[in-house]
Amino acid sequence: MLALSGSSYASPETIVPGVLWYDTSSNVLSSHGGGILKEGNTYYWFGEYMDSDPNNVLPVYEGHVTHQFVANTCYSSIDFVHWTFENNVLTQQASGDLGPGRVVERPKVIYNDLTGQYVMYMHIDSSMYDDNRVGVATCPTVNGNYTYLGGFWPLGNRSGDMTLFKDDDGKGYLLSNNGLSGINIYELTDDYLDVNSLATLVRKPGAEAPAMFKAGGTYYLLCSDSSWWTPNDNFYFTATSITGRWSTSKDFTPDSTNTWASQTTYVQPIQGSVSTTYVFMADRWNEWDFGNSMYIFLPLIVDGTTLTVDWYDEWTLDAETGEWAPVECTASTIHVESIVCSTVPIPRSQGMSYGEVTVTIYDDCGDRVVGAEVTGTFTGDFNETLTETTDDSGVVVLTTTTGFKQPSYTFCVDNVSHATLSYDPNDNTETCESY
Ligand code: GAL
Description:
Blueprint: E1 32-39, E2 42-48, E3 57-59, E4 65-67, E5 71-77, E6 84-91, E7 103-112, E8 117-125, E9 133-139, E10 147-152, E11 162-166, E12 172-177, E13 182-188, E14 195-203, E15 208-215, E16 218-224, E17 235-239, E18 250-251, H1 258-261, E19 263-271, E20 276-284, E21 294-303, E22 306-309, E23 315-318, E24 323-326, E25 333-345, E26 352-363, E27 373-380, E28 384-389, E29 395-405, E30 409-417, E31 422-423, E32 432-434
Parallel strand pairs: 25-31
Antiparallel strand pairs: 1-2, 2-5, 3-4, 5-6, 7-8, 8-9, 9-10, 11-12, 12-13, 13-14, 15-16, 16-17, 17-18, 19-20, 20-21, 21-22, 23-24, 25-26, 26-29, 27-28, 27-30, 30-32
The structure holds beta-D-galactopyranose.
């Protein structure tokens, strides 16, 4: 259930990226760096448990920190919107790979048709991130207590951020950052408990957070760059076969949005009676308060072999039909977003200047407001009240009619009015500004 207390959205049936999410028991939903397994019409979401307990924060080095392994969680949902807590499917052990002070990240689960086992792979590490192994756990039921089998370096390679992919023919693949040149794609053994061979290397030094999905006849591999918990512009590769050849990489969000301030985690197709929506799942980490890390779920558009993820404050997903739609925000109030004060020298005036302020008006949907009448007063070296109407950028520039030598002044917005929207000064970022 993704729309929540604290959010300004009314409907609880929608997906709201970037706010805290709660499960169906109203507890904070904690499933980071995770993945989805679909069984029947139920989606199971596995991920890392993270909370705000300072005792769970481990120093790494140079100011970096991480969250110690407490548990891998499992939630379930039919509609991909309301999530029910199932179980902490793997929990901290007294010692060893899953012991206190250890790092366990990006758990993924696939079902093995031959053995009837659910197989979980995860990134296993020390608190210094110098262990770089992949760990395996199994369970005969999807949401039961998984048994940890151990960790290894696949074919002797270091293994950082990872994911699993199960192809239509039942073949399983492990994709993992090899610490050096890119993402290694390994074919798993028939029982999925080990790797068989290296299918290919998708070359891109530093590529992390791999997520693979298939649409039509094309395989897509999404990755991030490496910048710890800080987001960067993520990218994707395409290929018509897993062994390659893989394309060069392209971004799927607009430049410098840093993937809408998030890091790729997984892509889940929601195949319905009418169409398929590909849900881009990402984490907006909060390394100062891991329990306040947010999920960014957005519709991923596949057009030919081009991927795009646009931002929606709120959107709906119908898991039955496979359709999605944006929820349009209807503005009702306006407020002052910013005031910038300056002066304008008056030519041939022996150092006199006008006072000038730029005021920007936004509505409560976060859009700039055209045609708002802004009235404000200059005090100090000036004493003038002026009114102007915002332009296409939601901006007014108010310039005094009198000059002053090296003026110092305060400007306050007295009122903002608009034909249909009401002024809410409580929403103002600032009301007065001094120069
Ligand atoms: C990220 C990685 C996360 C976590 C983090 C630690 O790059 O994707 O899973 O390992 O670094 O700083």
